[in-house]
User: What shape does this take?
Amino acid sequence: MDYKRPQRTIIVGGGVVGLHLARRLAERGEEVELHESRREVSEGADRASGILSISGLKKIGLDHEDSIVNTLYGAYLVAGSERLRIASGRPMAYVLDRKRLAKSCERAAIKAGARIRLGSRLVKTDLQEMSHDRSNLIIGADGAVSMVASTFGFPAIREYVLTYKAEFRSEEIEETGMVGLYFSRGFAKGLFGWHVPYSSDTVELGLGIDHRARLTSSAAFSYFMKDKASTSVVKTRGRALSSHASMIPLSTRPKTAKGNVALVGDAAGQVKATTGGGIIYGCLCAETLSRTISSGKPLSEYERSWRASYGRDLGFHRLAHSYYSKGNLQRTFRILKVLGMDGFLARYGDMDSPSLILKRFLLRGLA
Ligand SMILES: Cc1cc2nc3c(=O)[nH]c(=O)nc-3n(C[C@H](O)[C@H](O)[C@H](O)COP(=O)(O)OP(=O)(O)OC[C@H]3O[C@@H](n4cnc5c(N)ncnc54)[C@H](O)[C@@H]3O)c2cc1C
Assistant: This one.
């Protein structure tokens, strides 16, 4: 049977990735309708942090300037008594206000011509009905626990971390241009704890913990708040200004396109497993999806194309994650320091693309 070009794209989910896809499709002249269950796209957007590499932001072209709250030059990686400082003389990443970012993505999508339906939660029967009409494409950009994925029988994402984060006033932050990552098989088995300075007197502390852990993420967070590694760098003051629990997928979904249905962003597990960052790869894959749709090719082409472009780097992130999850980091930090790799990473490191770091490392060796 010949493949018929669908007439309309229905996006389920108005997170950053769904909104970015809506914008790109509308810019390509496609008819696009986005359904978001919340009444505002900014509602709940701050349950996640907003660290994005400057190089990644350039690639995806989000309107992010109004959302910048801090500039980052590097990171402390802390494992037990070992601390690795990777700092660059130039800005590496921004901390973005996630609520403002969501609003600016919404404005860009509307300006491009996308229709956004807020307060519209689609349920299984809506989705099934919409998909029966073959002139519709259904795109699940509906996050880690994707209703679109379960309705159409996509295979499950196997690895998750549960997160907890809170913002505090801070008496003292060692350096406002540096984030801290705290590795521990106790309070943060499965990811790490972090501190992200928003300004000289406000800081976010958070952590991710394996979804199979016996501890809840909020109990793990209380341990983290008392841990010497973090309290020696950040001194918080008073009660949390706000706090949120959430989750992050750490593995890609084995299948992301089927007939006239596809998944993108967290729904597809397009997340860096090392850090849980999902915006850059989610938006890059949204770009790939918008190209496939506007070229009139079947959605299987999207699956082939995003895996060909980004599968290797996402795989490297998985490998690095499984290495550090085994708790080998103290010794690794010592070795990296002896090899001078902290300086190399500060100069040539790329937060998003481990294959690029490897290439630069090999080229430097050859040179
Ligand atoms: C604590 C934490 C910290 C993070 N820090 C970073 C970071 O620093 N940098 C980074 O790049 N990434 C970070 N991430 C990951 C990042 O937030 C996600 O990868 C990104 O938000 C995924 O976007 P999305 O649009 O795919 O999904 P989501 O942001 O989850 O959006 C999905 C949307 O779909 C809507 N929806 C769901 N079901 C339905 C339905 N049935 N009908 C209609 N609407 C529906 C939801 O309301 C939601 O708005 C972090 C995540 C967490 C939890």
The longest helix spans residues 300-325. The two ends are 55 Å apart (CA to CA). Residues 12-18, 35-38, 47-52, 121-122, 141-143, 147, 163, 165, 206, 246, 248, 265-267, 271, 276-280, 282 surround flavin-adenine dinucleotide (CB under 6 Å).
